[in-house]
Design a protein that fits this description.
Largest sheet: 6 strands, mixed
Number of strands: 30
Radius of gyration: 39 Å
Shape: flat
Strand content: 25-35%
Strand order of the largest sheet: 22-24-26-29-30-28
Number of domains: 4
Length: 463
């Protein structure tokens, strides 16, 4: 016979039929999430619990004490009830021991391994030998370290690339200085410098997504990225068979660079390095924001014109905005529409007194009788007298940051129980229990984290 039963809490009052016999009611216990649960008796074979969050597993079990419940003495009369009690005690202890053994790790009789019966193992020490078991935390830490090492290596590679780009810029300037003072050569060198600067910015931007988009070395075209997810357009990898970088274009893999075009873009003419740079930029058609960067410049007139335009939108006089502020093209805010320290304005001529705001925060009566609902558009504070077992439903119109209090008063009968909607959350997931005496007053304080996550805390027996 089973010595325990596991049920899933519905969040309210739950009755559980016992599938086992017992010597004394004190031997029947319950636990949920490692915490003991208080039981009450409906009848000799049914127990009841309340206050456990919905969805939490509750184990009701028998725990027969191992200490002797019947003491025998020499020459004493052996009574049937005493003999039965002693026999049942031994039998119940044996049943419970059997159930405990059934739940333990076993050595499989057909092989040299242990069967944990689809259960987790915790409190495992960190491994030291290759054959030791490892915890999830240990594996996650090792994975994080490996990722950080890879990122550091990538950062070093990018730094080297930036250094090479800076070197290229220096070489371009040197080529311009050593070339003839012809205007064409000078302009070409300046264009080359602008292009190199743009390359540095592009390299820095590429680093941000490098580890997500570059798949590393592969011998064949991959079907997914390194995380097993669908390929994103622009993803790169280096094909070790053909020795080239390939790019995913959304349909298939293609070569990332056209060697023929790249070779022809810059002619091999060492006699005129400045001209070579200009020709390369022209052939490659380098653009930024849709404008050619060969010989492109920005004048101070453009910047001054932009400042004048900004000043005309919102004039500033000695640190203070002047003129009329128009909102959304049609709503104008003037000095007459700014409320005094004692009022809040509604429109231009309807001030709301501060006392009216406090009146709106008074204690309202929630709707419903046995299921009560708080409308947080009506009030933040509520008070109600419990005339039956009651459920506090999920509030409506709840907005993050709202807070308030609910005064819960037992009627003249008392012992009214309370349960909560699924959006209510309490410390350790344990629902609060009310003071049971007639006329007792408890206060439930709450804070809205999200509309589906209401944090509650009960202050009991206020008097």
């Amino acid at each position: 016979m089973a010595t325990s039963v596991i049920v899933t809490s519905t969040g309210g009052i739950m009755d559980v039929s016992l599938p086992f016999n017992y010597l004394d009611k004190s031997h029947v216990k319950a636990v949920a999430g490692g915490n003991p649960v208080t039981l009450t008796w409906v009848n000799s074979s049914t127990v009841r619990f309340v206050g456990v969050n919905s969805g939490v597993a509750v184990k009701v079990y028998r725990e027969t004490p191992s200490s002797t419940i019947v003491t025998w003495s020499e020459g004493a009369t052996i009574l049937g009830r005493d003999l039965n009690a002693s026999t049942k005690q031994a039998h119940y202890i044996a049943e419970e021991a059997r159930d405990i053994l059934d739940a333990q790790i076993e050595l499989d009789p057909s092989a040299s391994f242990f069967d944990v019966k689809n259960k987790r193992i915790n409190n495992v020490a960190s491994p030291t030998a290759p054959s030791d078991a490892a915890t999830k935390g240990y594996v996650d830490t090792a994975k994080t370290e490996a990722i950080n090492t890879a990122k550091a290596d990538i950062a070093t590679s990018v730094a080297d690339a930036l250094s090479s780009a800076n070197t290229a810029t220096t070489k371009a300037n040197e080529a311009a200085s050593s070339a003839a003072s012809a205007l064409a050569s000078k302009l070409a060198a300046e264009a080359s410098a602008s292009s190199a600067a743009a390359s540095v910015v592009a390299a820095a931007s590429a680093f941000d997504t490098f580890d997500d988009r570059f798949l590393g070395e592969k011998a064949a075209d991959p079907a997914t990225d390194n995380d097993g997810l669908p390929l994103a357009v622009g993803t790169l990898y280096f094909n070790t068979v053909i020795g080239k970088t390939k790019v995913w274009n959304g349909v298939g893999w293609a070569l990332a660079f056209n060697d023929t075009v790249a070779a022809s873009a810059v002619p091999n003419d060492s006699s005129a390095p400045g001209a070579n740079v200009a020709i390369a930029l022209s052939n490659l058609d380098v653009t930024v924001s849709g404008k050619s960067q060969v010989g492109h410049s920005h004048s101070i007139t453009d910047v001054t014109s932009l400042q004048s335009t900004l000043d005309s939108k919102l004039p500033i006089n000695n640190g203070a905005a002047t003129g009329t502020l128009t909102l959304n093209g049609s709503y104008v805010l003037t000095a007459s529409q700014i409320a005094s320290s004692g009022n809040i304005l509604s429109g231009s001529t309807n001030p709301v007194a501060g006392s009216s705001i406090w009146a709106a925060s008074g204690f309202a009566e929630p709707s419903g009788t046995t299921t009560k609902t708080l409308n947080l558009n009506v009030s933040s504070n509520y008070a109600t007298t419990l005339t039956a077992n009651t459920t506090i439903a999920n509030p409506v119109n709840a907005k993050p940051g709202q807070s308030g209090a609910i005064v819960l008063i037992q009627d003249a009968t008392g012992s009214r129980l309370i349960s909560f909607g699924t959006n209510w959350k309490f410390p350790s997931g344990t629902l609060p229990t009310l003071s049971t005496g007639a006329g007792k007053v408890d206060i439930l304080f709450y804070e809205v984290y999200t509309s589906g996550f209401i944090i509650g805390s009960l202050m009991k027996d206020i008097r």
